[in-house]
Amino acid sequence: MKEINTSEFEQEVLKGEKVVLDFYSTECPPCEALAPKFEGLAKLYGNDIKFLKIFRQQNRELSDKLGVKSSPTLLFFDNGIEVSERFSGGVKRSEIIRSLDSMLPLEHVQKIKSQIKPIISEFDVIIIGAGPGGLTAGLYLCQAKINTVLVDIALPGGQVATTHEVSNYPGFIEPQAGYMLSHNMSEQTKSCGTAYKVAVDITNVDLEKKEIIIDEHETIKAKKIIIATGTSPNATGAAGERELKGKGISYCATCDAKYFGDKEVVVIGGGNSAIEESDFIARFATKVTIVHQFDKFTANKKAQEKIFANPKISTLFHHEPRSFKREGDKMITELEDLQTKECKKLVSDGVFIFIGMKPNVELFKNKLQLDQWGYIKTNEDMQTSVKGVYAVGDVISKKYRQITTAVADGTIAAIAIAKDMN
């Protein structure tokens, strides 16, 4: 695997045969989560496909020319022509494999697959998800001498890792960078001895048997499972959103705000994430327009005061996006005025969407009880409807979702399990 720059792009990519190119950035949790997957696949497919990386921050002109608007972004080339679908943000290993396989003859793919040998490992407890709730549970279980493994499709930290600042976590007088807070939580749990299997694909979960399969070839068995999969950003559902993800639409200010220096940005949303991240984006952009469907924001008052006092930030209430389009270097956001039903267009250099979250329960649907909104039901010990399976953090049915409540959930589940197993 090789890192290139703009001057090498033509020779290495356009004049190459089969190439996969990773545009990455620093201070980008999804980029860090992709890195071990990319490196692992390079070892498997490297004899047939060239794996290259390029540092987006130092190669912005090329990035803009290719329409790369989000980090990370994977591009696939065959004889200088871009093929396959681009992938941005939280990229799954299985998605990359699908594209790599499509570039090769069947016999080559079969030969590569034959190199992958099944693995079986056993632990007392599997924690699925390494956000604050999962990390806390891992710490408590480790201290109770219970053999525990943390499994996550990304790197440890959860949503906190992509949050610019955390100002309400006890013990810190000054606001803390979300990335560092989650990093410190992870390091504390890891130093205790908890095993980590992160940046993997979870391809199957059997709650009754207490088994999961990761990366299609490793089976992990346990006596108990804690689900701590958290939530993911909601999409607006407006036309063009899916197609323009990573090409002008982003869901991660920590990852992409730095690329909007001296540019104009539209933010969709009105809760804590939208308002706090708008303040962060305004450090780079010359203008930020916040679009919200209601007549007032739901974010905390302190955050609202900051954005209302910022001359770079303007607001547009009673509006919803109906479509997103790209014209040249500009994003066109078509909005509907919910009062007059009239439509207008906002021209910007990029769009950030923060309109709430949805529970990550795809792996568990029809396997345990959920509430009407799809969150996992638990009792006071965090136990779900399946014996020996617990759930903690934002993925469970509860009134408030904060870092502190996730930490409390993880504590309760770990203590309950420790008492049951010791």
What features would you highlight for this structure?
single chain, 422 residues, alpha/beta, Glutaredoxin, FAD/NAD(P)-binding domain, 3 domains, 12 helices, 29% helix, globular
If you had to describe this structure to a student in words, what would you say it looks like?
There is one protein chain. By secondary structure, the chain is α/β, with parallel strands linked by helices. The chain folds into three domains: 2-113, 3-Layer(aba) Sandwich (Glutaredoxin); 119-232 and 358-421, FAD/NAD(P)-binding domain, CATH 3.50.50.60; 241-355, 3-Layer(bba) Sandwich (FAD/NAD(P)-binding domain). The chain contains twelve helices and 26 strands. It has helices at residues 6-14, 29-45, 60-65, 93-102, 106-113, 132-143, 178-192, 241-244, 253-256, 272-281, 301-308, 403-421, and strands at 2-4, 18-24, 50-55, 73-78, 81-88, 119-122, 125-128, 148-152, 165-166, 176-177, 195-198, 202-206, 211-214, 218-221, 224-227, 231-233, 249-250, 264-268, 287-291, 313-316, 319-327, 330-337, 343-348, 350-353, 357-359, 389-391. The strands form seven sheets. It has a five-stranded mixed sheet with strand order 1-3-2-4-5, with helices on both faces. The protein is globular and about 60 Å long.
Brief digest:
The protein has 3 domains: 2-113, 3-Layer(aba) Sandwich (Glutaredoxin); 119-232 and 358-421, FAD/NAD(P)-binding domain (3-Layer(bba) Sandwich); 241-355, FAD/NAD(P)-binding domain, CATH 3.50.50.60.
